[in-house]
Amino acid sequence: MSxxxxxxxxxxxxxxxxxxxxxxxxxxxxxxxxSDRMHESRIIDYPASHHNGSGTISFADGHSExxxxxxxxxxxxxxxxxxxxxNKNCLENFxxxxxxERTSSRMPGF
Length: 110
Fold this sequence. Notes:
This protein has one helix at residues 94-101; strands at residues 13-16, 42-43, 54-59, 64-68, 88-89.
């Protein structure tokens, strides 16, 4: 647990409910974007939003949250056809920023 310090365990998600049409492997990829570079934001894998626009996320400290997504691009309708376009430009999407702030930290130089 001492290695989990940026962000701290209460702000580092470890499991996320993924959109059914976004599942393409065993991982959930998040584009690391910072608030001053929102013009570069992309959505790689989509979080689930089938709970009235919300999904469930668990964190490294053991707590979980029910997260309401605000940007319509974050919550496409579920079609169960696996045809959702992944790794898509999603400029100025603050849901992507929220996820990137709770994913991990960039390694220096990357």
